[in-house]
Amino acid sequence: MKKIGVILCICILIWACKKGTDLMEENEVFTGFVQPSNFPTPAYDFTRNPITKEGYELGRKLFYEPRLSRNNSIACGSCHIQSAAFTHHGHDVSHGIDDRLGTRNPMPIMNMAWHNEFFWDGGAYHLDLAPINAIHSEVEMDETLTNVLTKLRARPEYPPLFKKAFGTEEINDEFFLKALSQFMLLATSSDSKYDKVMRQEGEVAFTNAEKNGYLFFQNNCASCHSEPLFTDLSYRNNGVRPNPSDDHGRATVTGNPKDMYKFKVPSLRNLAFTAPYTHDGRYLSISRMLDHYRFDVSDLPTLDPIFQRADGTRGIPMSEAEKADLMAFLKTLEDSAFLSNSLLSEPFGSEFIIH
Amino acid sequence: MMTNFKIWLLLGLSSLFLIAACSKDPDVIDESKLADFSIEFDHIVGEDRFFIDPNYIYRNARGEQFSIRELRYYISNIKLFRANGLEYTVPAEESYFLINAGDRETRFTKVRVPEGDYNRVQFMIGVDRERNMMTPEYRTGVLSFNPNEGHAGMFWTWSQGYIFFKLEGNSPVVTIQQDPTGNQQFKYHIGGFGYPFDDPEAMDNIKIITVDLTQASGDHLAYVREGLRSNVHLTVDVMKIFNGPNTINIAETANVMFNKEESGKIAGNFSSLFTHDHTENYVRTESEL
Question: Is the CB of A149 inside 8 Å of chain B's CB atoms?
Answer without folding.
Answer: yes
